[in-house]
Amino acid sequence: MPSDNRPITNFIAGSWRPGRDRLDIFNPSDLDELAGSYTLAGADDVAEAVAAARSAQPHWRAATVEQRSLVLDAISRALFDGKDELARIAAAEGGKTIPDALGEITRAAHLARFFSAEALRAPGETLGSVRPGVEVDVTREPVGVIGLVTPWNFPVATPMWKIAPALAFGNAVIWKPSEKTPGISIAVTRIIAAALEAHGMPASLFNLVIGAGPNVGAAVVDAVDAVSFTGSVNTGRRIAVRCAERMIRVQLELGGQNPLVVLGDADPERAAEIGVNSAYFHAGQRCTATGRFIVEDSIHDAFVAAMVERMAALRVGHALLPETQIGPVIDEFQLTKNLQYIDTGLNEGARLVSGGTRLERPTRGYFLAPTLFTDTGNAMTINREEVFGPVASVIRVRDYDEALAVANDTDYGLSSGIITNSMKHARHFQANIQAGMTMLNLPTAGVDYHVPFGGRKMSSYGPREQGRSAIEFYTIIKTAYRAL
Ligand code: NAD
């Protein structure tokens, strides 16, 4: 900490330094506990970070594939080794339960490990030419300095599925995390900086700027060579417009209003078990969470009864207590927004069958009862917009055809699912649901780290993240002709 006592929170040009305006984060499970004090970077810090990243990137680009692979391997190991402390930070500032946080950090460690191996697979091909005596090489080069703008709900895994491929393929990084989860971003950056330094690489090729979206986030978008963004549709649209003006590449992962269809042949108990996990774990703050249960008439009542029974048994409370299954929502803004959506649902005629209220617990926190509506129509606001909280609704349908039509009648297209034993309907759903990801007899939320992740319609824009698809965004193709 410098002599003026301002907390050091930004990693710029290879050194830790304080910002200006103070930012105090309180534990959402216990508002009387300060989770951490930080200071926010300004737009001028971004300019310095980008300049440093630009001058460091050629060293990284020139590193061997093995050196890049080893750095990612070191990041992976440090995430595995440090997972308990990292989980505690994520739980204290973001309200994740410890098991949820450990799951996320382990996933981030696997992501770094996956891209450690991908870094070794120098991609490219040599082809013949239509002209005699000529060969054609198709190779991939790093893009340059990538700006990563990320949200608070998965503060380690979402950044890591961008950071790892960005580094693996030779790029420098400016990371602008959500200002709601600064502590965990600092801890992850320490790991990355240490891994770079341990392998003789300039740490200045990775920069962390913690600041408000409209000034620091926008300054990043204005200065880098490409932007990978995860967050809300409104922010994503603004960023895409700016990137188009600058003619730089952009990748957006946005919201969802994910449908889970339950057909009449399903076991209602199994469907409810999947449903509760899908809609309410991590307090529903997952972009892949189920918002709409689209349920065939013949199983409707049994499914709703099984859901209500399970929901009554859910343990909502302080995220750091071992018995807690669902922690608080992240902050007052989110809690108020969730409660407003619940009011809107009631005003539009939905029937509340579980939850719907803020919960009192021994500590002051943003606890919200997992909430289920029935008697809802697909045109209701709660079924059109992304609530992003522990709130879901049931839409009753006559048959499979109506279920599919309702599932697709949305502006979003991130995740989706169907619960059935019918191979015919399962295959038809897989082929015809307009979503980037679809699940059979599984929650809509919960995805693997080694396969593509992304959606359609308003949920995504640009090339897919994760897995072998990630290379599309983080590299530029060069076609080289050679006369022999
Ligand atoms: P948000 O859009 O408010 O913020 C996301 C990030 O953008 C933050 O770092 C914020 O500071 C920054 N930002 C805000 N305004 C900006 C601007 N004008 N220019 C540049 N940056 C700016 O979203 P949030 O509330 O942090 O996250 C929740 C949203 O993220 C939900 O809609 C959720 O569905 C979505 N999400 C999507 C995925 C996915 O992969 N599809 C994953 C997780 C979360």
Notes on the structure:
- The chain has 484 residues and is of the alpha/beta class.
- The chain folds into two domains: 8-254 and 459-483, Aldehyde Dehydrogenase, Chain A, domain 1 (3-Layer(aba) Sandwich); 258-448, Aldehyde Dehydrogenase, Chain A, domain 2.
- Helix content is 40%, strand content 22%.
- It has helices at 43-62, 65-81, 83-94, 98-118, 157-168, 182-198, 213-223, 233-246, 268-280, 297-312, 332-347, 381-384, 400-408, 423-432, 471-474, and strands at 8-12, 15-18, 22-27, 30-39, 124-128, 134-142, 145-149, 172-176, 206-208, 226-230, 249-253, 258-262, 290-296, 351-354, 371-374, 391-397, 417-419, 439-440, 460-461, 475-483.
- The termini are far apart.
- Bound molecules: nicotinamide-adenine-dinucleotide.
- The site of nicotinamide-adenine-dinucleotide has 30 residues, from helix 7 and helix 8.
